[in-house]
Amino acid sequence: MTLFKEISSLSKKEKVVHLVLLGCYFMVMEFGLGSSFDSTSKNLVRLNFLMVPLIFYLNAFLLIPKYLKAKKWLLFTLYILVLPSLTDSVRALITVAFFYSGTTSFGRDFLAIFTDDNNLSGAVFIGLILSFAYRFTKDWIKNLTTIEKLKTEKYAAELSFLKSQVDPHFLFNTLNSLYSTALEENSPKTADGITQLGTLMRYNLHHSQAEKISLAKEVEYIQKYILLQKLRTTDLNEVNIKIEIAPSLLDDIVISPMLLIPIIENAFKHGIHPSEHCIINISLSFADGTLQFEVTNTILSVYSAAEKSGIGLQNLKNRLELLYSKKFQLITEKGDKEFLTKLFLEVQ
How many CB atoms lie within 10 A of CB 48? Predict the structure, then answer.
């Protein structure tokens, strides 16, 4: 259940804070506000005050995460409107069943308690106010922490990139020299590989540092990357790519750069060998605001332990968690002969 799942996900420190505050609240209720009442009235006071934490946890850990954050406005509003009547009904039922000694019928006693002036609207209101304040403050602090973490990661990546970067002009001039040499030595395949490599490097220099790029540019990079990889494939290797998105839509959809390529890199790294019959299938589609990217590759009969690490996919998952939080799902399935990777990404 979402309620218990959300509560159990709290850190140990936050759980301790909740327990301490609840303990203080019940101490005040038991020895403060309810101490001057007789036994029956005190039970009613306990019941009324118990509704505040119940409403707090119900709204903060169930209704807000499941409905408000999911933009299910109508359902959320309906539940909030129903809460006062529901809690009053529960209070009346418990009161008549255990505490109330009326002389009339159970139904009339229930109706009398339900409609009296001592209803739970105040407790519901307080519980809702506290839960909204708690949840929004917590999410605000979490967002600030995530933003700071993203900034730190970005600065660290940029610093690392600058430290390891070779002068682009020197690099491209060297590639041009190698390209000319390959043509002079009548090595068109080598020349083509140098051209593809230069294109990919230009993409990295110009687009990888951007926060968002069009999906069309990402697809273009993937297609050129596949062309470069095919230089080392043989007739035993088969690579299929299927783009099920209209070109106009590819231009409209924007994502963070270099999100899809690690999956393809992983497929080529673990799924292509010149001497084995290998197949890589790549498909990209879009439906209901969600990008669906699926890659399957043959599992090679023999490859080194270092290649089994899967660091690339783990790094991708860490990046997705930072950039897209709960708006993605990365699934990997290993069969006897195939390895499947699926990425579902909410982009609208």
Answer: 20
Q: Hey, how many other C-beta atoms are within 10 angstroms of the C-beta on 16?
A: 11
Q: DSSP letter string over 202-237?
A: HHHHHHTTSS-EEHHHHHHHHHHHHHHHGGG--TTE
pLDDT, tens only, 100-123: 555 555 555 555 555 555 556 677
**How deeply is 302 buried, as exposed, middle or buried, from its count of CB atoms within 10 A (0-12, 13-18, 19+)?**
exposed
Domain boundaries, the chain: 2-148, 236-348
pLDDT in tens, 122-133: 777 788 888 888
Q: What is the CATH number of domain 236-348?
A: 3.30.565.10
> Concatenated DSSP letters for 269-286?
HHH--TTS-EEEEEEEEE
- What residues form DSSP beta bridges with 338? 298
- Rounded to the nearest 10 degrees, the angle between the axes of helix 121-164 and helix 311-324 is 130
What sign results for the dihedral spanned by CA atoms 139, 55, 4, 331?
negative
| Angle (CA) 275 280 283, round 5° | 170
Residue 345 pLDDT > 90 = yes
pTM for the predicted model, two decimal places = 0.51
Contacts of residue 342, Cβ cutoff 8 Å, sequence gap at least 6: 292, 293, 294, 329, 330, 331, 332, 333
